[in-house]
Amino acid sequence: MSTSRSAEQWDEEFECLIDLTLGLMALNEGQRYVNRIQRMPMHTSIRTGHQYMMELINDHPDRLFNKIRMYRPCFEMLIQVLRQQTALQNSRFLTLEEQVMIFIYVISQKATNRMAMEDWQHSGSTISIVFTRICKAIASLSPIFIKPPNLDDVPDEIRFNPKYYPYFQDCVGAIDGTHIVAHAPSNVVNNYRGRKSNVTTNMLAVCSFDMLFTYVVTGWEGAVHDSRVLTTQLEDPNSGFPHPPPGIPRLIFVVLFDLLIKLIMSLPILVLYNRVGKYYLVDSGYSNKPGYLAPFHGVMPPPDSDDEDNTASSSGTTANPHGYGGNDENFANSMRDHIMIQMYLHYNM
What we know:
This protein is an alpha/beta fold. It is 46% helix and 14% strand.
């Protein structure tokens, strides 16, 4: 009997809890309805969004940087570019500077619409409209700032650096992918889950050696492998991808310098035949193929510097098992081995 009474008491308490919850929900909805009818002002702070922006700009530089991850000169330069290159202007209630600052604040701090409403004292619809407008304007600048470089020239960052020249004189840039956290519709969310189970979008970027983007691809699902993103862009004739110029046959003379005695004895010059062409540096997630040079998998032990015969044989054959002048499948491996041989001979002379 005691058990039965306890169950009945629990049922009564549960019903009371449900009634209380429903009552609070009804009261909350009633208050929201009253607020809509009475049009109670919400953003009534003495400090307006424009005043807050001017305070950040004119106060300590780190305050602006902590808010939008950008210092004042960079922010003013962005405003100037948007005025010159787009149709953006001051709106009826917001200056262009305030609109841009709202946009940068949201993307740099991962701020929600409500957070932006409170900081800038504007309605949620205004924040949304401003964000969309500035986002489209900045995206329209991509053809102006994201341009392929002149692939026929040797980058200055390589030409004037003895660590890289002449070994990487045919390198025109680097390619890599990254995952950006995203929100996907529930019916396709599994396609955007990467290997770490996070919902992301896969992005591919091509950079030159002066730290500029020359090509960007966005929008791929997070579950897609980096190599597929690159392969799809290479096979699409309308992608606009800046393909490296094809190689042309030429002779490469590699002279083995070890000792002055060998020079006096006129050591025969080793002649290697190689098809030299421009190429991008890629990471190990991509295939090593002509035009795209990937690193060695693991660590490749250098030849024994004390064994002269081993050094000579490694320069010509051991470190180059694929053979120069082979098919395209082995060509990239041969080119990679050749660069390694050149660097080894230079630093061990």
